[in-house]
Predict the structure.
Amino acid sequence: MALAMVAEIPDLSREQYESVVTQVNRAGSPAGALFHAGGPVDGGYRVVEVWQTREAADAFYGSALYQAAIAGLTTHPEIKLTWSVYGLDDGSGWHECS
């Protein structure tokens, strides 16, 4: 089942966000990633993601690639909310997530 998550990263700057996103997407979207949106909020950044499965999200966040990308940061994402996703429109039209 697809998984959506909302994370907040306190004290993250735009430059830090762009650096992490650039590094982890250098070879294309991470395996299992269906959607990512991030932007500034009071006190840091908020990120919304959808993954094919919880296992895909866990594999990415535990990967050497992600760990290297966040190595210089003093703060890390705080997962605020997760939920199962039935359907998704990623700009290519709505489809059921299986």
Observations:
- The CA atoms of residues 39 and 57 lie 20 Å apart.
- The helical segments are 14-24, 54-61, 64-69.
- The first helix runs from residue 14 to 24.
